[in-house]
Amino acid sequence: MVPRVLNAVILLLITSLVSGDTYKLQDGVISVKLNSETTSPSVLISATTSTGDEVPLLSSVTSSSGETLPLFATATSKVLKGPVDDTFYVLEERTKWHSRTDSMSIDSVDESNLPESLAFSGEMFRDGSREDTKVPYTMTIKGVQGNQFGKGASVDFKLEVEDGHANRVYITAASPSDEKIFGHGIQYSSVNHKNKRVPIFIAEGGIGRGLQPITGFLNAFAGGAGGDEFTSYGCKPQFVTDTRRGGLLFNTEGSVWDWGAEGGEAVEVEVFGYPVEGRLFMWEDSPAEYVEMITEYTGRMSPLPEWTQEGAIIGLEGGSEVVESSMDKLIEAEVQMVGLWLQDWSGLHHAYDGDRLLWDWKLSEEQYPDWSGLRTRMNSLGINMLTYINPYFASNLDNGEDNSQFAEGDANGYFIKNSNNETYVMKSGSIRFGCLDVTNPNAVEWMKDIIKERMLDEAGSMGWMSDFGEAVPYDGVMYSGVSGADHHNEYPEMWQALNYDAVREAGMEDDVAFFSRSAWNKSPGNARVFWLGDQLVTFDDKDGLQTTVIAQQSGGLSGHSIAHSDIGGYTVADYPLAHYHRSPELLKRWSECEAFSGSMFRTHVGSSFEDEDSQAWHDDVVDHFGVFSKVFGYLKEYRLELMQVAEERGLPLVRSMFYQFPDDPAVWDEDLMKEQFMFGDDFLVAPVFQEGAVEKNVYFPVGGGQWIGLWDGSVWNETVDYAGVATVAAPIGRPPVFYKEGSKWGSNMRKWVIDQGFGV
């Protein structure tokens, strides 16, 4: 964390630029200082802590030439973003700028609503000409509140632009060169975003995401399917820094955040529309205060049904014979199981790109002719059935049926339309499909009926993967009239709310757990549990196991407090020079990590169900998997307690170490955050992310006291003998896990580990 003395220096430098009138909001906690008497007016919005420290939240920045840059600007793009393309929903930016303003004025200040709010107005213009290029604006600032415990502060803002031509708004604000930037929703590779350009529009995550050669191959030959460092199902216009500030935009339009603007001394936020609305935050003692404040806006997640916390949920597919044979092996090995997840419950679509799930949401008698018998047998063993659904409906079924749900939805206008008022038929490889229009109330009721009748009733499903939600085309036509550009990012919120409403209407909210992938600002208040998308079957921090730890921490700052991943990863790939198959070691290490991080303990067979890819029931894996299914089950009560905290305060189960130890500069380090985390308040977890590794370096934070090794009872702290860093043993089966001295959860689990024969 930036020391408070340095914070004061930063504030002094910024304040020296703004020697004008000062206005106080929210009992004097929020200050707005405006200097309008120069040709380069400046703005400083700051908050005062309970100890009198002043924290800059939004301020003008000085360029390298010494002039104050305009805080606001507008521009016009000749070519807007194109429509969604193929499976990967790549949104290409093909822009040619003209008419970007380069100056602004502050012409008037409205103090009539102080201390509740303040507004100032002026013009943005170009080349010094206010006559020919002026764009009027009004900025309104309103004090809100801190968290429910009286810590921190927040302030809302709204920038209105009176112009019918511009389609971009810029905010260029100070961001010190050594400031550390975290958040932006679900991020998989980047932790500290300083000096990076972060695009915010939800999309497929990509395959490889920078890992070579697979990323380059797919980006070159598969329409950008490889993605990059920032492609994400759940990126968000939200951030928090080590300088005790944070913020979010309420806008649903896309945006780009350049945290390296002006040589790394500024952030330039480009918003694809206006007005621009948002909220700024100040935290005092810990970023936990920021999470508490932001989740009051995003909504908070609720504890999962207890049964989900007692063991493994096994992902399988392939029909009754394959499923029962695999389950028998797991049962014989005494794996602790609570669920059987069959994503192919609706059948398969057969085409050139293999066997794909049939996007027609009803039970397939061809795939599972005795579903009822399978369900009865599993239920008798305490194993619930789970299924799969997404908001897409295939128009090219190959199962010989003429009563497809697509035909029904198309006839009733339930899908997003094109400019010809016809269903906008999109493609995912061989599949042609329509996307449910969640702005159409009749379509929503129809989809809820499908969930209630087909999944909850007929299939007896106690949970499902609620997939996708990233495919709204920018040129789509919605029932409500909202544009595709405005609706693209917010779609997941409405898709998740639909699922949750169906469960509530069925009276099963205490029993059912659906898991979602895509996300926007308010998704945490609408989702049951998140899963982290489609990782490659690798160890790395580009698209492999390590990205799940990064994403858990990043998402937790945006309200994603309850989340998990596909154990073993999902994407199996065979391309020229790029062969990726799941190894037994990877599956074991993933199981170890998920037992101490996942809110559910769920496997996936992978994108290609081949014999060479390791599975939980294989002889060389099943015993290890059984151990960690029991470890996960033992932690049930601990997780449920953490989930209760998530519901009450918004805090995630998986936390960066700076929640508890914000005064230790080391825990703000990006490389360290990729390697270890806190599981609640009691456990420090450092999973193994290197193939073949049998030891790992672990950092014990300053102020953390003594830590006890879960498996062997060894004692560690931040003594000078090793400057807080220790090399610890990490054989397969004993991932580095430590608990704080005095923790009842840790000491009880240590006894259990010994009793079970898992430790020494």
Automatic annotation (TrEMBL):
Residues 650-743 form the Glycosyl hydrolase family 31 C-terminal domain. It holds the Pfam family Glyco_hydro_31_2nd. Residues 1-20 form the signal peptide. One of its GO terms (molecular function) is hydrolase activity, hydrolyzing O-glycosyl compounds. GO terms for biological process: carbohydrate metabolic process. Belongs to the glycosyl hydrolase 31 family. NCBIfam families: PRK10426.1 (NF007746). This is Alpha-glucosidase.
